[in-house]
Amino acid sequence: MSEDPNPGHLREDDLESVVIRFCGDSGDGMQIAGGQFAATSAILGNDIATFPDFPAEIRAPRGTTFGVSGFQLHFASREVYTPGDEVNVLIAMNPAGLKVNLTDVIAGGIVIADSDEFNNVNLSKCGYPDGYNPLDDDQIKSSYQLFEVPMSRLTREALEGAEITTKEMDRCRNMFALGVAYWLYERDPTPTIQHLERYFGKVKGRPEIANANIEVLRAGYHFGETAELFPARYRVAPAKLESGEYRQISGNQAMVLGLATAAQKANKRLLYAGYPITPASDILHGLSRLKHLDVRTFQAEDEIAAVASAIGASFAGDLAVTGTSGPGLALKGEALGAAVIYELPLIAIDVQRAGPATGMPTKTEQADLFQALFGRSGESPCIVLAPSGPADCFNTAIEAARLAIRAMSPVIILSDGSIANGAEPWRIPDLDSIEPIACSHPSPRDEDDPAFLPYTRNDETLARPWAIPGTKGLEHRLGSLEKSDGAGNVSYDPMNHQRMVEMRRAKIERIADLLPPTPIRGEPSGETLLLGWGGTFGAIATARDRLEKKGLSISAAHIRYLSPLPPDLSEIMTRFDRVIVPEQNMGQLAMLLRARTLVDIKSICHVRGRSIGVAELMRDIERVIEEDSTVPIGGAS
Fold first, then answer.
1. Cross-sheet strand order for the sheet of 47-53
2. Residues of the domain holding 501
3. Where residue 630 falls among pLDDT bands split at 50, 70, 90?
């Protein structure tokens, strides 16, 4: 069904991009409504970037500001890299949602509120003073385009006579809001109707719920058409993206597909062992659905058991993965050190969140870099990678498997909450174009063969052989005590320990020889280089582009490989007068690069539980440039 009526008296405006945010209680279905709007926009060919925002409480008191859930979408006819700083359209399902989010709306922006929910009880719950209703505030009315829509009442009217409970009727309100938004931005509701029929009708076996949601979605759409409330409709044309087949994908979804692909390319069974933790749990959920691809998942009783199980699976010859967030990575530290000394391939995914300790479980941060690099006893180097966005998680997962097997070493992937939960279009790759992952095991040995030495080294990679237990003639000792070079027996010899420590470090450093050149956005030399890693990519790229248009000499580079660092990084830095590193921590990468390169790097540090905003980043960059001296740090003039 395609519904696109266009009353002739309405003005139609073409827009390049729009940022829309749905907000309400955590039980109001804001993630579903926003996710469907994002999926529909992707189908229509817009470039998109999303920002789901969850409350930390599992179920905060209804109507309070603590329980507000939001979903923000930036959709455009051009390439976009962030969910947007300022909101063009806010759809607020209750007073708490309006109170928490209104200040993010641009002056003159559209605010659509469910007026039925703005009663005295709900106004009091979120802290508004007695007798005050923001919908009656003249200042708000003059600052925004405020539209009051009685969504709760209209939802019940649309479902009059439906054989579902009143509570189930009220849960359909989000579809009314979505229908209004679809009409306002000329989105075809057909994909959402098909989703509702499939999910509620077939998967859940509740066709009456599917029909109710569809009826309310249509009611919201037709309300936009017939109410004559809005002065205009808006059109955002498809983006000109690279040709190919696309789908919307989140970071955790891309990680799941990347891990499954890596296992196929290595001809290995995949074992994922994890313990539920926000925001990494969806990786466990996603992989559990791929049993047909020889993927096995194990929900352990705690974080330590999860990583220990993964190590056991690696010892047995599987591609082994464990996943967690910052607190769980701390608990896994000892076992990761064991994987270092065992010299077994292992992938550990850390979907970073705001800390320390439990911190803000549903908010994002980049503060686990030092923990990934140094958070184990002794000298225990690991390979550390960081995806730059949701779609990049697919390639990063494959790269992690390739490097883990090549170096016989743990690899830590530093994702984060904004990457894991955010979504963007992903160009589906040709799987045949992805190179196989080289993987070999020693063959069985006869009694006449020389004794098997489990810690002999490959001349090229310095990795030890991956011997599968039970293979004839490959019996060997494994444990956490230091190994003798070659034989692998327990050794307390001082010089042997020195050799083994240096060998484990050297095989990680050899990975640097495989790394591709670091791409630079902008000129290869100049006055200012922005250097970032992980989830700051979108903000840095957008800020650089805008500052260049303002006349600044500014370039940007983004680091995927954090251990070992790219070998060309130091030379790149010398081509610029100054290097600025924006991070969502207190300057961890900047500190590391200062120590490694002796460059006087300038830090921009944001630790607010949300991604760096482009406008604020631009102001920070301009401030740093203004404060900085003009003395070159390299050879730039």
1. 47-53, 68-76, 17-25, 87-92, 105-114, 145-149
2. 440-514
3. low
